[in-house]
Specification:
Length: 345
Amino acid sequence: MKFAVVGAGVIGETHARLITSLPEGSELVAVVDVEADRATTLSGKYGGEPMTDLKQACARPDVDVVSICLPSGYHADAAITALEAGKHVIVEKPIDVTLAAADRLIDVEEQTGLTVAVISQRRFQHAPAFMHQAVADGRLGRITTGIAESAFWRSQEYYDSGGWRGTVALDGGGALMNQGIHVVDLLLWMLGEPVEVQAYSDRLAHERIEVEDTVAATVRFRSGAIGSIVATTSAYPGRPVRLSVYGDRGSAVIENDDLIVFDAADGESTAETQSVADGQPAGEASVTRSVADAHRDQYLDFIEAVRDGRAPSIGTRDARRALEVVLGVYESARTGAPVQLTGRD
């Protein structure tokens, strides 16, 4: 497939580099950025014609897929432009910063019948996939609790480095919307449909930003399970993402991309399942499946979905659900009251 990357910033370079690593037959043919110098620089590294106009790029017959790597508040509009031009779309997380924008995108996706995936590559890592299958198979029994922790460090210089960072309009939020949404998606993948959130948030360690750098929330799920989310960009020097899932027949914990705890009443323990979670034969040294590898796997899943006429493993409705939780957290923190989550339908 032939790709156009829209947005030549940090994440745009990640996508451009990834596309060049895909199997033969995939190619980066265009790099689009409103700043011509940025487009030229990125295309010089990874190929593709530098362009400054999204509509012109979408009009090219040699573009099959448009990868949206813009500031978050532009995601839906850019994706809709590509869909209306007949292109499949990959959108960086989050899907956008409002549910109205997400719903516009989903509507156009359904009208065109084209394929849209939203990046949430951690589902493709071995440890989360193993944990999800264990939950689905009932090996942890009835799931009672999930804890999602995203304790990152972002300096003041990070927020000052781009005019959109830390803004409500384009970043949509802070520690939870930008950094923590990955682990929110994993928590929902494990525990199912969320129905209510209650939260606190604040800006405690940064200046000149409109969004939170610290948030804590409790999520109630339809199953009755209770989840906890903690996200911050104020935890120097930063800690690995951690996800814990507990049930009445077992427990599982992922930290730093590894399954560090797996204790199930069926008799298996962490030592016996670690190599399986890491995709290694029993007895061999554990090799973590990196986030970069998982990102590539999500691209490969998307390509297969387009060719097979199926939905991608992570689609717009998954992304909308994660966004609704994040926005519900923000509303609860603002009002001090619990927020009901209703879903799209």
